[in-house]
Structure formats: structure tokens, C-alpha cells
Structures
1.
Amino acid sequence: MGYRAIFGSAAAFVLLAGGAWGTANAQDGAAATDDAGQMVSFTQEQVASGQREYVRSCQDCHGANLNDGEFGGPPLVGFYFREKWYPIGVAGLFGFTASAMPPDRPGALSDETYANLVAFILSENGIEAGDTPMPADMAALAELSLPENEE
Ligand code: HEC
């Protein structure tokens, strides 16, 4: 996968994704999230398989409730998580997760599995599942927008 080679460093990835968002936002003004494209979507099946993989590969560090990990993983739910990631976007979240998680074997899971994990995380943050599956592809994900963050 090209993006893993290009964005081998998660920090560089976030900076780059953040920079790209900054440009789009400057053009769109306040309505960036509304105009950025189609709202993100994923299916209940993706959430369910994402949850199964989460329990296997992520829960020890990030916790059963995604904010109560025992081994130093930061919260993956809540206002501050969304405040950090929603402006970066779903492609950025997918890219970071796929290139950096789990820390002992980053990128070891399939793209589809990472998409399922992101679907599960977004679902836990209050976005409802629908009929259209989430693509496991950076370019397609970059077309999708996330809702406004709410407390
Ligand atoms: C060994 C413990 C560990 C495991 C297992 C683990 N993580 Fe993490 N995770 C971390 C740590 C530590 C960070 C913070 C790293 C950083 O900011 O560079 C992190 C950061 C994250 C972030 C970004 C959170 C933020 O606030 O920026 C996401 C999303 C994430 N992990 C998802 C996952 C997923 C999905 C899995 C399972 C495939 C997983 N993690 C497995 C320890 C872990």
C-alpha cells in the first residue's frame, strides 16, 4: 500500500492530513464540514466485525469502553478525541490507525479490518450505521466528511 510507505511516520501523516484540511477549510469557510463531501457512512456489519477485532487487538490498551485502557492507550471516544480527529477527517483517522496500530505490529491487519475498526470507533462516538459500507481506501475516504463535533 503506497500510503503506508509514504506516511510511514504517523506524526508526519497527521501533520500532512491536517495541512490538507486547513487548505480546504480556508476555501470553504465556516461550512467546511457541510461542503466537504458526502457524510461518512458504514454498515452495522462493519461495526460488529470492528468490535470483534477491537476486543482482540486494541482493548488491552484502549479499554472496553474505549476510554479506560490499562496500558496507556489514549481515549478513542469523547469530545477531546473528536476535537482532535474530526478536523483531520476519516481518511486521516484510517491512515493513522492503519500505519501505527497496534503499536507492536503496525499495519498488520487488512485495510478492510482497519476500516471496520474505524467504523466501530465512529459508531462509539455516536455516528449511526447505515446502508453504505465504509471504503477501505484512502482516496475514497478523503471524499467523506464527518459531522460537527458535539459535547
Ligand atoms: C500496546 C498498546 C496499544 C494497542 C494494543 C493499541 N493501541 Fe492505539 N494507541 C496506543 C498509544 C500509546 C497511542 C498514542 C500514540 C500516539 O499518539 O502516537 C494510541 C493511539 C491510537 C489512536 C489515536 C488516538 C489519539 O488520541 O490520537 C487510535 C485511533 C488508535 N490508537 C487505535 C487503535 C486501534 C484501532 C487498535 C487495535 C488495532 C489499537 N489502537 C491498539 C496504544 C495502543
Note: The two ends are 36 Å apart (CA to CA).
2.
Amino acid sequence: MTRQDTTDHGRNAVEVRGLVKHFGDTRAVDGIDLDVREGTVMGVLGPNGAGKTTLVRILSTLLRPDAGTATVAGYDVVRQPRQLRRTIGLTGQYASVDEKLSGWENLYMIGRLLDLPRPAARKRADDMLERFSLTDAAKKPVMKYSGGMRRRLDLAASMIGNPRVLFLDEPTTGLDPRTRNEVWTEIKHIVADGNTVLLTTQYMEEAEQLAGELVVFDQGKVIAEGRVAELKARVGGRTLEIRPADRGEVHRVVGALAQAGLDGTAGATADEKRGVVAVPIISDEQLTAVVGLLAERSIALADLSTHLPSLDEVFLAITGQKATHLAGENETEEVAA
Ligand SMILES: Nc1ncnc2c1ncn2[C@@H]1O[C@H](COP(=O)(O)OP(=O)(O)OP(=O)(O)O)[C@@H](O)[C@H]1O
Ligand SMILES: [Mg+2]
């Protein structure tokens, strides 16, 4: 996807070629090629067991690959693990901070582990807590933090050593939408500072918010890749949902849209049970026109919303089959008390 881009858009922060990792009979990573340009966010999408965490663990030197090569910031994962570790930060799928210590103590300890002198470690802990809006909770033990606070502390912890490349393994799984947004904001800041992020996620919206480019994994293989817009276009863009105040009007809405030629390529469909009309949206103009038409016909609305294709729909479109093992909203799994 980006192999030809090295001259146009700067260097690759991550380069993976033919990477393989087996666990017994399981081909967790099964011949993956991947480039991540410096200063960008790469989203790795995929269902449970697709190999996302295995890739992150190899790239952060926690696992040795069976075959293929991978470099991060130019350092080989197998031959130069020590240099490599100094340039990366890692936020694992499961929280890595100590529950009994306070947020500040956790960050200070990590600073010391990274060989910062005491005053520098203290200052770094203060700065990071401030940056991730945790100053008020600095002295609280982590066991009293909310899910969102923990995730922000995890991010702060992975940033202590000023890493140029950050690996985030499902940074917002299990968080509510508001705290998810807070974490996204922090990740955006990290990238705005010129750092590179490789992020795994099961949320299309997260990929959309953060990632310039995406790869979709399934069973250890890349099954699709490209810019977010390209993948979305492949699954048919947005859907507009119209809920008339009177649910008996769903067919009138469908008829009006068809008459006006505003029902999209696949046509508008009525879901009588839910009292909703779904319209595939191809352009913002179409969206505006639909809203105008409904007003013109005096069709009172209870609700109007657009939604993006779900990961399920992407899967359906890409693989042609239902991803039966797709995860839903994972239970909060980061609390390992
Ligand atoms: N240490 C291990 N020993 C044996 N099998 C493993 C090990 N780690 C991962 N696997 C297997 O490798 C495959 C890929 O797992 P991985 O954790 O990389 O998936 P994932 O995409 O991160 O999934 P999730 O979305 O659930 O986090 C799975 O079949 C998993 O059971
Ligand atoms: Mg995982």
C-alpha cells in the first residue's frame, strides 16, 4: 500500500515484510506486509483472534517472529531490540499500571525504570498527568480510577520516555463514548506532535477518527487495506435513518424519496417494525435534499440520523461472509485487580 511512498511522504516508521508467527497449529500472523509512514496513524482492524495483538507484541519485541522481518524506526525487532525499545511506547490491551500505586507514583516509577534522574522523573510525571488531565487524581490509587482515567494513565505511562513510535492495542475497548472521545483527543495530540501511532481497534469509528490508513486482518492475514474513505466507499458509505413521528408513514416516505430520485443507488427501504426508513447516502447534497423534501411534504420526524458502516458490514463487504466471531462491545477487561 505504501511501499512506493517512501520518497514522497518521508520515511517509514514501521516496515514489516513476510512476518509469520505460529502458536502450535495456530497461524496467528501469517505472512504480513505493512508500512507505516512517520507521523501518521495506522489502524489495524480485525475480529478477535485476527492476530492484532500478536503483531503489536512482535513490533514491541515482546515476541520473536518465526519468519519475515520487521523494523521500527529503522531498528530490527530481532537484531536491535534494545535500541528499538528506547524509541517506542506501548499501551497493551490490558492495563499495565500498578493498581495499588497512585497515578503519580506509577509514572514516576516508569520514569526511573527508563533511567531518568529523580528530579527529571518527578517533572515528567507531573507534566504527563497534566497533559492527560489527571492532575486532580495524581495522588489517588489507580484502583479508584474510572476506566477512562486508567486508559489515559496507560497512555501517559507509554509516553514517559518520549517515544517516537507508539503502539496502542485497543486503547478504548470497553470505554463509554465520552471517555473514548477523551482518549481520542489525547491520541490526536500525540500525532500532532509528529509521532507515529499504530493502533489496533475493533471500532470502525475509532479508525475513522484517528487513522489515515487502515489494514484489516483476518486469521493472521491482511484481507483489505487502504485509506479510511476507500474502505468506507467499498462498503457503501453512510446510511441515513429517517424515523417519521407517525410510524405508519414509513411507506409514504419511501414513495416520496423514490419519486424525487433521492433514494440512493440501492433504494430506500422501510423497516415497519422499527418504524424507520433507511436510505444509502452517496453525497452531502443528497442528504440535504432528502431533509428538504421531507420538510416540503410536511412529514413530521421523530428522529433523523446517519450512521457509518459497522465493522460487521465492512467484513461482509470484504470477505463476502458474515464474521461470526466478530466481537461486540467487549466487557471492560482492563481491570485485572
Ligand atoms: N501466547 C499464545 N499462545 C497460543 N496461542 C496464542 C497466543 N497468543 C495468541 N494466540 C492465538 O493467536 C491468534 C491471534 O491472537 P491475537 O491475540 O493476536 O488476536 P487479536 O487480533 O489481538 O484478538 P483480540 O481482538 O481478541 O485481542 C489467536 O488464535 C490466539 O488464540
Ligand atoms: Mg488483541
Note: Residues 3-233 form a domain with the Rossmann fold fold (CATH 3.40.50.300).
